[in-house]
Design goal:
35% helix; 150 residues; alpha+beta; Arc Repressor Mutant, subunit A; Alpha-Beta Plaits; elongated
Amino acid sequence: MTLDDTDRAILAALQRDATQTAAAIGGRIGMSQPATWRRIKRLRDEGVLTGQRVALDAQKLGFGVTVFLGVKLATKGRVSLDDFERAVTAIPEVQLVEHVLGLYDYRLRVVARDLADFERVLRRRVMTLPGVGDVEANVLLSEERRPGPI
């Protein structure tokens, strides 16, 4: 699908706040509500817009620590990737599971209440998963959210 400047403006507006109405977005970009709504519908129908998400503030919910884990599977032949993925996605503190190419097989985003809570999650949940070998932890110090290129 080819996107024009209007499509990109609509996508940028929705990326900032997906709860905006077509009328509000159209008012900002100089289009009528019906024309903006038709564009949004086309972007959904074409699969460019795949849903709406709510961003939660982990700190305000009591999760003060975010850690990125690099996980290398020790026994790739004996444990399937599906087994590992099924087990790791069942851990509530694991927010994101990415199968990656490089030094590690997986990159996980894990939230915890504090470092002691993270240690508990690491020892009792992550390290006991099928096939886990080497693990490297990187604690998030700060995060700047930027919308991706459109």
